[in-house]
Amino acid sequence: MFGKVLESVFSKFTSIKIQCLKIWDELEMFSEIFGSILSNIVPVKIQCLKIWDELEMFSEIFDSIISNIVADKIQCLKIWDELEMFSEIFDSIISNPMYSALI
User: Fold this and answer.
1) Which H helix or E strand runs over 15?
2) DSSP state of 98
3) Residue 52: which of 21, 35, 44 has the closest Cα?
């Protein structure tokens, strides 16, 4: 009787051990697949970070260009206003009868 109990326990132990080995194999296979996926994800992530850095650098350069363009445009508007004011003064001088008498 003890032999049958021992045989039953051993049989169950062997069955559990076999099950554990199957699970272990599946975990190793998953680990290999996951490792492969991870090794593909990491370079893509690094590439994305490089692109992000380049976009940030481009954004800074673009902002600088835009601010320079805006400053130039403001300067041109100031010059335009001064030219218009000069034109009005010049027209006023030319239309002045005393100027016409000098000519």
Assistant:
1) helix 2-95
2) H
3) 44
Query: Rg for the chain (alpha carbons), in Å?
Result: 43
Distance of CA 60 to the CA centre of its chain: 13
**Looking at the whole model, is its pTM more than 0.70?**
no
| Length reported for the chain | 103
The pLDDT of 76-98, averaged and rounded, is 85
Do 85 and 92 contact (CB within 8 A), yes or no? no
Give the rounded percent of residues in the chain with a pLDDT score beyond 90: 10
Instruction: Concatenate the DSSP letters of all residues of 48-78 into one string.
Output: HHHHHHHHHHHHHHHHHHHHHHHHHHHHHHH
Six-digit token string for 67: 């601010």
In angstroms, the Cα distances linking 64 to 61, 67, 69, 70, 98 are 5, 5, 9, 10, 52
